[in-house]
Design brief:
425 residues; DNA polymerase, domain 1; hpI Integrase, Chain A; 3-stranded antiparallel sheet; 2% strand; globular
């Protein structure tokens, strides 16, 4: 594989002659498999070879000795480049550029090596309440992974707040601290529904720690959440003309554009959620019967849609000319290496990016903007709310009713100065 990237025989011989030559070739194979380009290989392979020589001179004799020499090598390289930094790069940035490829190679070749890369987020209150997530939420209550992550998200915020106050023991908790936490979360600009969800998580947590005897009294009832009135908000939908502008803003000539266009079409055609798009696999598409299956929706059921011609053609274009070669069965993947499936946040960011590019002004742009737009279009077309709710996977009819309270197109005409015509109808 070295010959694929390095044309000069002496370069290939030099790499293979290194005492870690086999590990370097293994690392190169990993880079290629993850979709890294030739330029990345040209930068990283010489760097890890140089690191191997550095470690050998310092006494390393086996691959397992290499991790002990990473810090010294990074320090030396940073000091050597002190006078050669370009574009105002700092010592920290240079250290990151040097350390990254080396630790990446060690993770591939040294069993158990983790390095100093992005740390895995710890479980909130993992030491104080070790059985809350696995034994209580998962085993006892049977929550799905998405719901468990939802609990962790809110409890991370609560844990950070207690740390800021210097609270080290849950026995120190008081109603005043809980009220102050809720007030702080509300002051950050979060929607009332988000604050309410966080309060619900906190109540469940407090009831559990009281049940387990970790606090003396049940503080869950002292957590007061903001009142959220039914149908009090307006859907974040945009007009169908604006949807067309969003789709037209995608450059479909590039692999990334082909992927993004297919994602946007799925959002506006079927009203899928971001996580539903990210979770799609090749098995979900029945090309013979022209069906698209969306399993494990939020409502707890699965939906099979007719596969529209436009969506099918966009997905085929991406699969043939944009999707990286991989054995993973997910449909959509990150554009930059390493090759990994996209997540729900990436889907929402994709929608937000094209909404802004098309000049569409909307509060909190994202994948739900396009989902709301589809639902509003169905409501305006006089489809029954039950049919709409089933189509987009609403858990409750109440989720759909909010769209029936606003005559969006009529109000747009009023705003444009055609109010008399609307009132005359």
């Amino acid at each position: 594989m070295l010959e694929t990237y390095f044309a000069k025989p002496q370069t290939v011989e030099c790499i293979r002659a290194s005492w870690i030559g086999s590990e370097v070739e293994r690392y190169l194979g990993w880079l290629a498999g993850q979709g890294y380009g030739a330029r990345t290989v040209w930068r990283r392979v010489p760097r890890v070879v140089a690191f191997g020589e550095f470690a050998r001179q310092r006494g390393a004799t086996v691959v397992g000795d290499l991790p002990a020499h990473v810090d010294a090598y990074v320090t030396e390289r940073v000091s050597e480049h002190r006078g050669e930094r370009k574009n105002g790069s700092t010592a920290q940035q240079v250290a990151k550029e040097v350390r990254g490829p080396i630790e990446q190679m060690l993770r591939v070749t040294v069993p158990g090596f983790e390095g100093t890369g992005r740390a895995h987020r710890h479980t909130p209150f993992g030491e104080m309440v070790p059985r809350f997530f696995d034994e209580y939420l998962v085993a006892e209550r049977g929550l799905r992974p998405e719901s468990v992550r939802h609990y962790a998200h809110h409890l991370h915020r609560f844990e950070a707040y207690l740390s800021k106050l210097g609270v080290r023991d849950l026995q120190e908790l008081s109603p005043t601290q809980l009220s102050a936490f809720v007030a702080e979360r509300s002051a950050t600009g979060l929607a009332k529904t988000s604050v309410r969800d966080g309060c619900g998580v906190l109540r469940v947590f407090l009831r559990y720690v009281h049940r387990e005897g970790l606090i003396g009294r049940d503080l869950s009832k002292t957590v007061e959440w903001p009142q959220v009135y039914r149908l009090s908000s307006i859907p974040r939908s945009i007009s169908w003309t604006e949807v067309g502008r969003v789709l037209a803003s995608v450059d479909r000539r590039t692999p990334c554009g082909k992927r993004d266009y297919a994602i946007l079409l799925l959002l506006v055609t079927y009203g899928l959620r971001g996580r539903e798009v990210a979770a799609l696999t090749l098995e979900a598409i029945d090309w013979k019967r022209e069906r698209l299956a969306v399993p494990q929706r939020k409502a707890g059921h699965s939906t099979a849609f007719p596969l529209s011609k436009a969506v099918g053609e966009a997905i085929v274009d991406y699969l043939q000319h944009g999707r990286p070669k991989t054995t993973d069965r997910h449909v959509f993947f990150r554009s930059p290496a390493p090759v990994r499936p996209i997540g729900s946040a990436a889907v929402s960011a994709c929608a937000a990016r094209y909404l802004l590019r098309a000049g569409v002004q909307v509060h909190r742009p994202g994948s739900h903007t396009l989902r709301h737009s589809l639902v509003q279009r169905l409501v305006d077309a006089d489809f029954a709310l039950k049919e709409i709710g089933d189509f987009v996977g609403h858990r409750s009819p109440r989720s759909t009713q909010i769209y029936s309270k606003v005559a969006v197109e009529s109000l747009r005409q009023v705003a444009l100065g055609d109010g008399e015509e609307v009132l005359d109808e």
